[in-house]
Amino acid sequence: MKSIETTMAEILIVEDEVAHAEAISEGLSRMGHHCTIANDGQTAVAKLSTQPFDIIITDLMLGPGPDGLAVLDAAREKSPGAKVILITAHSSVETCRTALQNGAFDYVEKPLNLDELRVIVSRAAEMTAQKRTIHELRERLDEKFGFGNIIGSSPAMLKNLDVVRRVAPSDIPVLILGESGTGKELVANAIHQNSPRAGKKFVAINCAGLSETLLEDELFGHVKGAYTGATGERAGRFEHADGGTLFLDEVGDMPLPMQAKLLRVLESGEVVRVGANEPVRVDVRIVSATNSDLAEKVQADEFRDDLYFRIKGATIDIPPLRRRREDIPMLIDHFIQAGNKAHGTKIKGVSPEARRVLMGYPWPGNVRQLRNVIENMVVLATGDKLTVDDLPAEIHTPPAGAAEGQFSELAGISIEEAEKQLIRNTLKMLEGNREKAAQLLGIGERTLYRKIKEYDLKE
């Protein structure tokens, strides 16, 4: 039988008749499988504890010690994804049928027909190979797009996720830069969830628009009688996040006097509630975010340089959506699925025309704005696919000025030249990714390849 490389499997053969075991091993090895032999149940159970197997072939009756059913139980515990094939005499067929209900993959009767066993093994190997491929694919997707709701495959986002992976296990402070709506809190939460502090709390506070007095109370808490109306004591965000992560959003807007108090806490690891004298020890990791240029604020004496360097352990710069447009199709699909789940709708996708409009819009509100637009479209759509008619007016109508700049260059040229420019610009925007370009343009990949050759386009 021809060996199929993609279905090669690690096989454990459990057979107390040595010659029989070797014959099975030789027959399966010729197919490309790697076989290990155990001549008793005890040895088989021991091997299952130390080595992963894709397939276990075991005789039901193994003499003294654990029998084939015991090997099946051990396989379910030690190698839950493995396929177990039982070899049995005719008198024990009913036992094997019961074993099938308890997790066995299949069985063969004695005298053993090697060709029959090969067919069963090939089927089992194919299934384990598919399962392994799916598992590896999920791992790769997690490497690219993991960390909850952080969606994106653009180089900038992959670089940021790589930084998240590397800094998450540590305790160093992280500063996240980016415009409003880019997902800074999602990244901060991802750092927390992938850190040793994941079992503790993630506490967020927005520092923008809060006075020094209110922010101090929010961060450090107060004791009874600290000020008028303080009828009891209250722990602040630092104490609430003890053992976990404190996310200081828009830290660049923190009042200067409060910056000094925050620096003191970060350096000492102690907070003093408003109106108290005794400090409280806290263990908190700080992740900060801002949509302003802190370096410029330091130069303008609007932000303390010592605090800046204290919170700037590692920096993650999230680009605005208009600078990572290749992520928009993936985000659209993600938000459609989320909208269907939240509202019980059954939207199947988005039309190519609507997708092109969404791709071309500048998204001043970034990912947050895109999410809200898609969610509203999902709820209000009259069909099972989002179309141009479902787009809100402000998205469907290009912004003044931007529209003129985008479309004036297409005026007065032929349809062929306009198509050529459209394909060229789309390929450039997607860094030559033909699959994504074809999807965005609403044409097949073969058609795109033909157009590229026809127009002599260089990617």
Number of domains: 3
First-last Cα distance: 45 Å
Regions with little confidence, pLDDT below 50 for 5+ residues:
1-6, 399-409
Helix content: 40-55%
Write the topology of this structure.
Blueprint: E1 10-14, H1 18-29, E2 34-38, H2 41-50, E3 55-59, H3 68-78, E4 83-88, H4 93-101, E5 106-109, H5 114-145, H6 155-167, E6 174-177, H7 184-193, E7 202-206, H8 212-220, E8 221-222, E9 234-235, H9 237-240, E10 245-249, H10 256-268, E11 270-271, E12 280-281, E13 285-290, H11 294-299, H12 305-311, E14 314-317, H13 328-343, E15 349-350, H14 352-360, H15 366-380, E16 385-386, H16 393-396, H17 402-407, H18 415-429, H19 434-441, H20 445-454
Parallel strand pairs: 1-2, 1-3, 3-4, 4-5, 6-13, 6-14, 7-10, 10-13, 15-16
Antiparallel strand pairs: 8-9, 11-12
Helix pairs in contact: 2-3, 8-10, 13-15, 19-20
Task: Describe, in plain words, how this protein is organized in 3D.
The chain is an alpha/beta fold and 459 residues long. The chain folds into three domains: 5-139, Response regulator (Rossmann fold); 155-319, P-loop containing nucleotide triphosphate hydrolases (Rossmann fold); 325-454, Helicase, Ruva Protein, domain 3. It has helices at residues 18-29, 41-50, 68-78, 93-101, 114-145, 155-167, 184-193, 212-220, 237-240, 256-268, 294-299, 305-311, 328-343, 352-360, 366-380, 393-396, 402-407, 415-429, 434-441, 445-454, and strands at 10-14, 34-38, 55-59, 83-88, 106-109, 174-177, 202-206, 221-222, 234-235, 245-249, 270-271, 280-281, 285-290, 314-317, 349-350, 385-386. It has a five-stranded parallel β-sheet, sandwiched between helices. The chain has a five-stranded parallel β-sheet with strand order 7-10-13-6-14. Helix 19 (434-441) crosses helix 20 (445-454). The protein is flat and about 90 Å long.
